[in-house]
Design brief:
alpha/beta, Spore Coat Polysaccharide Biosynthesis Protein SpsA, Chain A, 3-stranded mixed β-sheet, 13 helices, 38% helix, binds 2-acetamido-2-deoxy-beta-D-glucopyranose
Length: 402
């Protein structure tokens, strides 16, 4: 009898212990409280509908007040980091195996971008924004090479007295469409005099946005937003984001928009289709599943040059509450546009080649006349060659006809 009772008590004790352990396990794993949707292969599902399902709510303000006011900016960034932190904490509770034991590419943000809204510390003064139609935001860098690239752009495609611009001023279609070109730059940081040189350059040319952000590849997205936020202060119709190693015939871009009857919403560029997302630890364009849970990128316009209509800017600013910004800004914009159901436009006269500088000498006159924007790797020498060829073809003794 006594033994039987003891046995029963032991069973009861064991069952109670098991229950306690099970509950503790639930709590530790947070399975009880959070649910992260996964694909059949175990990857975090991250499409916009499912984001809403896990209550990553968009704290969308219909018009996000992005003024150059440090207290307002701090408030916005705190709210933003609260929203994103919550997601991050959830992620850490669900660690799974990965290539690198210290990096969980499925459930962590990798590479980690400490996103915040930044206003430029230096910006052009006395901007005449009346009837401003388009702001061209040229991403550039802080060191010597980039100063050379900016100088080349000021003397070639960004120069208002070049032949193409002069002709445009007599062209009814585009002569009233005012544009402004600014370079978007961060800080080199201590140890060099680059920042002083860039400040001096900004004072001399009055065409630079300098943000208090360290120049590195991860901060690209912060620079991108800084430029768009600054441009959105003006009553413009479009922004065009470009890199500093491209050649853009701005009047032809304007003409394109006129001929297309000023499309809105508009997201246009040279389109990449069917690119796999790189998930390899350490890759330049690697983006973890946590940021973006699909295998392929949607079609997107690479960062060398793309155009956004201004009605999209505010939505893009609010989108950071829905999907944490990752460093490849062009793909991020592409994903946002896909989620907004904005149709992507491919501008057929834009052209990207990985080594455009090597191609340029081989390109025929008529090919060049048919193109509006050419990129990557158009270095200062290649820019000058292109510039001279366009000057000759457009304003030479015998203008070229194709
Ligand atoms: C910044 O915003 C705060 C809060 O709205 C306001 O009290 C302050 O006057 C603003 N500062 C400037 C310089 O505009
Ligand atoms: C988010 O997670 C990453 C990787 O686990 C970590 O490096 C980062 O510090 C976290 N960020 C925040 C704001 O908690
Ligand atoms: C923003 O405010 C800071 C501090 O008041 C100022 O130095 C900077 O020039 C301002 N930037 C712009 C773009 O107005
Ligand atoms: C624009 O081109 C003209 C003529 O070549 C040149 O004198 C001027 O310095 C250029 N502007 C800039 C900002 O470099
Ligand atoms: C720039 O940022 C650094 C680091 O966040 C900060 O210490 C510094 O005060 C900022 N400088 C300006 C001019 O805002
Ligand atoms: C992978 O993890 C090791 C530590 O085990 C770390 O030193 C290394 O930097 C990580 N690799 C990358 C690409 O982050």
């Amino acid at each position: 009898m006594y033994f039987l009772r003891l046995k029963r008590q032991l069973y009861g004790f064991a069952i109670t212990l098991m229950c306690i352990f099970f509950l503790m396990w639930l709590v530790v794993n947070q399975r009880f409280f959070t649910w992260i949707p996964r694909n059949s292969d175990g990857h975090v599902v991250d499409s916009i509908q499912q984001i809403h399902a896990v209550q990553r709510r968009c704290v969308c303000e219909s018009s996000l007040v992005l003024e150059n006011n440090s207290s307002i900016l701090r408030e916005i960034n705190t709210k933003l980091s609260n929203v994103l932190d919550r997601v991050n904490t959830t992620a850490k509770a669900n660690k799974v195996k990965s290539d690198n034991k210290t990096i969980d590419i499925v459930n962590d943000y990798y590479p980690f971008v400490d996103f915040k809204f930044v206003f430029p510390q230096i910006s052009p003064t006395n901007v005449d924004s009346r009837d401003l139609f388009m702001v061209v935001l040229v991403n550039s860098g802080a060191t010597t090479d980039y100063r050379k690239r900016r100088e080349a752009i000021r003397q070639t495609w960004g120069n208002r007295s070049n032949c193409e611009q002069r002709k445009a001023s007599g062209n009814e279609k585009v002569k009233d469409l005012k544009w402004l070109l600014v370079f978007v730059v961060g800080k080199a940081g201590p140890g060099t005099n680059d920042d002083e040189l860039n400040m001096a350059e900004a004072r001399q040319h009055n065409d630079m946005l300098i943000g208090n952000i360290t120049e590195n590849y991860l901060n690209n997205i912060i620079k991108f937003y800084m430029g768009q936020v600054w441009a959105s202060k003006f009553d413009i119709k479009y922004t065009m984001k470009t890199d500093d190693d491209v050649y853009v015939r701005i009047p032809r871009v304007l003409e394109y928009l006129v001929n297309a009857k000023f499309p809105r919403p508009f997201y246009g560029g040279w389109t990449y289709a069917g690119t796999l997302v790189n998930r390899k630890i350490g890759g330049k364009w690697t983006v973890s599943w946590k940021y973006y849970g699909e295998k392929d990128w949607p079609r997107f316009n690479p960062g060398a040059f793309f155009i956004l209509s201004s009605d999209l800017l505010n939505r893009l600013f609010n989108y950071v509450y829905i999907r944490k910004p990752f460093h490849t800004d062009d793909a991020y914009v592409g994903v946002a546009m896909r989620d907004f159901r904005v149709r992507i436009t491919t501008i057929s006269t834009f052209r990207i080649d990985p080594d455009m500088n090597k191609q340029i000498p081989k390109l025929k006159d008529c090919y060049l006349l048919g193109k509006t924007a050419l990129g990557h790797n158009v270095d200062p020498i290649a820019s000058k060659i292109l510039f001279d060829r366009y000057e000759t073809m457009l304003c030479g003794n015998i203008p070229k006809k194709c």
